[in-house]
Specification:
alpha+beta; 7 helices; two-stranded antiparallel ribbon; seven-stranded mixed beta sheet; 275 residues
Length: 275
């Protein structure tokens, strides 16, 4: 297996993508146990789902792990984590438990204590610093998938509104003011959109994730997502969309099983790391 180096220390020792992946896998096993014990349905998202299908584990050069769940399951997940996430090993950040949280990124980050990671970040630095160095620990991203509409007339108004709110939130936050009113508006728009489309046959990333053209959002059939199915992932089994082929075609294109050129095989998210 080719080695992808994230950091070379002064003593010559290295931290590799594989080292990070093994930490993420340990975290994911604990999260999966919590979700199964509480009947919270979730799935591997995006590149993590691709890794499960194409590599039966991590993409060898992938330096993060993403999961997703419905808005309803996410709300229950927040409550469950407050009581069941092992506090000696982990902490979690989301807007629901810390209004300093950046609402423009995935809805939650679950972090491992006694680790450190500095992300490639072009938006906002982590404002949730109450736990010292642990506040920047290695993390798993949790996204929300919510009901959506394929009709542009029904879809675009709230989607474009959140897209317009994004730079204003970034600007105000970067001058040192926490724009809570705008954050509340931004998050409320996303939840309102999901409720308005609750009877839709379609779902996708909720409107807090606005890093794709509003005219070409990710949209999946709900019956392609649920019920999730468990597949082999490294030495464990983790859930992927029910129709993983339709899902991966929508996200990556029909040639998703083809490896990218060698020049595109590199870790994209990590600037600095300590395990």
């Amino acid at each position: 297996m080719e080695k992808y180096i994230l950091k070379t220390k002064p003593d010559g020792s290295e931290i590799t993508v594989r080292d990070l992946q093994l930490v993420l896998l340990e975290m994911m096993k604990d999260i999966d146990t919590i979700c199964q014990n509480n009947q919270i349905s979730y799935l591997l998202s995006s590149g993590s789902a691709l890794g499960a299908i194409r590599h039966k584990g991590f993409i060898p050069w992938d330096d993060d792990l993403d999961i997703a769940m419905s808005a309803e399951d996410f709300d229950r997940f927040v409550k469950v984590l407050k009581n069941e996430l092992p506090n000696d090993k982990y902490l979690f950040h989301c807007y629901q438990n810390n209004d300093k949280y950046n609402v423009l990124i995935p809805a939650m980050k679950i972090r491992k204590r006694n680790t450190y990671i500095k992300e490639v970040n072009t938006l906002l630095e982590n404002r949730c610093k109450e736990d010292g160095k642990d506040s920047d620990g290695v993390f798993i991203d949790v996204f929300i998938y919510d009901s959506c509409s394929k009709s542009k007339i029904l879809d675009l108004p709230l989607r474009l509104l959140n897209l317009l709110l994004m730079p204003i939130i970034i600007l105000i936050d970067n001058i040192g003011v926490n724009p809570k009113f705008l954050k509340n508006w931004f998050v409320s728009n996303a939840r309102l959109y999901g409720r308005l489309n609750k009877k839709s046959e379609y779902m996708g990333f909720d409107l807090t994730w606005s890093f794709r053209s509003p005219f070409k959002p990710y949209v999946f059939r709900k019956d392609d997502i649920y019920p999730v199915k468990y597949v082999d992932f490294e030495d464990y089994r983790l859930p992927v969309p029910n129709n993983h082929h339709a899902y991966l075609c929508a996200v990556f294109g029909e040639d998703y099983m083809k490896f990218p050129d060698v020049g595109h095989r590199f870790a994209k998210h990590t600037v600095d790391i300590e395990l």
